[in-house]
Specification:
It contains nine helices and ten strands. It is an alpha/beta fold and about 280 residues long. Helix 2 (about 30-40) packs parallel to helix 4.
Length: about 280
């Protein structure tokens, strides 16, 4: 075979070179790195600016009968150290709003801003880092890991963040004491009451000292006595730790412990009314 023949290209169309395009809806890599550096270095947030902000937020679900609009042009600002209770009827979109504020879901329109960045445009690893560093979540159900003891459950976020077991325990232990469960440290969730499990979940949410607490009906599954205990703890801890907080609740006593109240109705927030 001649050398010229051996150099012949295979017949057919020459494949196009691979092209990589940046998603225009994503924050560029340089801006994302700046954001990550701010999180890692725990850069202080300007107290004059919102720590969390929603702008013209919209959430629409598609159903067989047409679009179901849950949130429509909703806006709010949460300043550092401020707390907000959101009340509203069941099905009004309170949990949906909280999930959007925490980056657990993406809006159909509008923005959720943290440190001036639209969190919906962050890559998933950076968004996860933001949630771990800046946000603590408490849900109606405790979501404790059944095979781990109370202290281990509280320490779990610190372990996942890279702290050593001893460091994680040193962070978790004072919080377990603070919520009144030092004597239950070795008990697994199955051996705890509903109120105790929710207090462990609250301690877990705070173990990495988040700047923002997002709580979704944190006392919804509790009896009146335990609900009052958890209400008091949330109000006290938000004040002690100078956190910003958004609490979604039907419980007017818990709502009164927050600095401000809003009603969610018809997809928007309205000034809260005394009851």
């Amino acid at each position: 075979m001649s050398s010229s023949a051996s150099q012949e290209k295979p017949k057919g169309k020459t494949p196009k070179p691979l092209q990589f395009k940046l998603d225009k809806h994503k924050i560029d890599l340089k801006e994302e790195q700046i954001f990550l550096d701010e999180l890692n270095n725990e850069t202080p947030i300007d107290p004059r600016k919102p720590i969390l902000e929603a702008k013209n937020l919209k959430k629409v679900y598609q159903s067989g009968g047409g679009d179901l609009v849950i949130l429509e042009n909703l806006s709010l600002e949460l300043k550092p150290g401020r707390s907000l209770a959101i009340l509203g009827a069941s099905g009004s979109g309170k949990s949906t709003l909280l999930h959007l504020l925490g980056g657990l879901d993406k809006p159909s329109g509008g923005q959720v801003l943290s440190r001036g960045r639209d969190i919906a445009r962050l890559s998933e690893p950076i968004l996860a880092r933001w949630r771990a560093r800046e946000v603590g979540f408490v849900f109606q159900y405790h979501y404790l890991l059944p095979e781990f003891e109370a202290l281990e459950n509280v320490a779990m976020p610190a372990l996942l963040a890279g702290f050593s077991p001893k460091e994680a325990q040193d962070l978790a232990w004072p919080l377990l004491e603070r919520v009144g469960l030092a004597q239950r440290r070795d008990h697994r969730p199955g051996a705890l009451s509903g109120g105790e499990r929710q207090r462990v979940a609250l301690a877990r949410a705070l173990v990495l000292s988040p700047k923002i607490l997002l709580a979704d009906e944190p006392t919804g599954n509790l009896d009146a006595q335990n609900a009052n205990l958890v209400n008091d703890l949330i109000g006290e801890l938000v004040e002690e730790k100078k956190m910003s907080a958004v609490v979604v609740t039907h419980n007017i006593e818990l709502a009164r412990k927050m600095g401000d109240r809003r009603e969610l109705a018809k997809g928007r927030l309205w000034p809260g009314q005394e009851r």
